[in-house]
Specification:
Blueprint lengths: L18 H17 L29 E9 L11 H18 L3 E11 L5 H15 L2 E9 L4 E9 L19 E4 L5 H10 L6 H11 L5 H9 L2 E6 L4 H12 L2 E4 L10 H6 L6 E5 L2 H10 L6 E7 L5 E3 L2 E2 L10
Length: about 325
């Protein structure tokens, strides 16, 4: 974790909020998170983590390296009146890890960069990122800090493929006509949680669970890896909404989509499940549906839920026999 040499010569002596003091406290926190996974609390021989100009890490597998990055911007991706800073740190790392999950990759290393207004509790934000790293088996090895009028958290993650080295990563373009489509969980929870939080939702258990789906989404890393090992042909994570992301998969693969139904989280609306976004469940295409379901059951995971199938007609998008609605998130520039 580093920073440009942008201070003036007359800067005050280091205090609790000093950039380098904060970096040191974050280093300790991230290395402690690595220790909780029975990993070394400091870099193994040859590795360099937080504190130098760049991180140095050794390979974790002989296969390809999988990279992903994402941004969380206050006022765009997160409402700071509804989410605490540790939620922001957690979410910022998980959304990048979700892209690894969609490729069937395991999480290895992460860079976490933060631009924040003065007075931002960076240690609380770092605590959330450390929780996400701990839960996912990922080690934060560096990043950057900067002042900014608005909070921005940028995460970059590095993953690898485990298991059979002959299996390629899952990509959006691998689906084929006739493939069955599944999703790793019911949808609409994040959008429903956001709605309830904005309404000042009460703390009854169902509402609390929905709020957590919005504040702390979980990357489906184990599910993605198992799908890859079980003959899946393509996958994508649901960040922009089912209606948008399933079109991304279909367009990349040159297939049409027929959906038989949409599984909706208890407490969410059907519209939130179709277009709400930020569920971070995985859409999986496979020509071996029985093998996929059996693998999930054997591993003790929630069985994937059937969505529909791919067709030979590119541009075909139907839901229960009717046109699939347009929807989902898209940035405009």
């Amino acid at each position: 974790m580093d920073s440009p040499n942008s201070g003036d010569a007359g800067a005050p002596e280091a205090g609790p909020g000093d950039e380098f003091a904060v970096i040191e406290r974050l280093r300790v926190r991230f290395e402690a998170a690595a220790r909780t996974r029975s990993a070394p609390g400091s870099p193994p021989p040859g590795d360099v983590w937080i504190g130098d100009d760049a991180a140095v890490v050794g390979p974790t597998s002989p296969g390809p390296v999988i990279l992903a990055t994402d941004l969380v911007v206050a006022g765009v991706h997160v409402d700071l009146e509804l989410c605490a800073l540790d939620d922001v740190g957690y979410k910022a790392l998980m959304v990048s890890l979700s892209d690894l999950a969609a490729m069937g990759a395991a999480a290895d290393y992460a860079l976490v960069s933060i631009a924040a207004p003065p007075g931002t509790d960076l240690e609380l934000l770092g605590a959330g990122a450390a929780e996400a790293a701990d839960e996912s088996g990922c080690t934060v090895v560096g990043g950057d800090l900067s002042g900014s009028p608005v909070l921005v958290v940028s995460t970059a993650v590095l993953g690898s493929l485990r298991g059979d080295p002959g299996l390629a990563p899952l990509v959006r373009s691998g689906a084929r006509p006739g493939d069955r489509l599944f999703v790793t969980g019911a949808l609409g929870g994040s959008a429903a949680g956001f709605r309830l939080l904005r309404e000042g939702g009460a703390a009854e258990p169902p509402r609390s669970a929905l709020a957590r789906r919005h504040r702390r989404p979980v990357a489906r890393l184990a599910e993605g890896a198992l799908a890859r090992e079980s003959g899946a042909t393509a996958a994508i994570d649901i960040s922009d909404g089912l209606a948008a992301d399933i079109r991304h998969l279909a367009e990349a693969s040159g297939v049409g989509i027929v959906l038989d139904g949409v599984p909706v989280v208890d407490g969410a609306t059907r519209e939130e499940a179709i277009s709400g976004g930020e569920d971070y469940e995985l859409i999986i295409a496979t020509g071996e549906p029985d093998r996929l379901v059996a693998a999930f059951e054997s591993a003790g995971m929630r069985p994937p839920l059937a969505l529909g199938h791919c067709t030979v007609r590119p541009g075909e998008y139907t839901l229960e026999g009717r046109p699939l609605p347009l929807g989902g998130w898209r940035h405009l520039f």
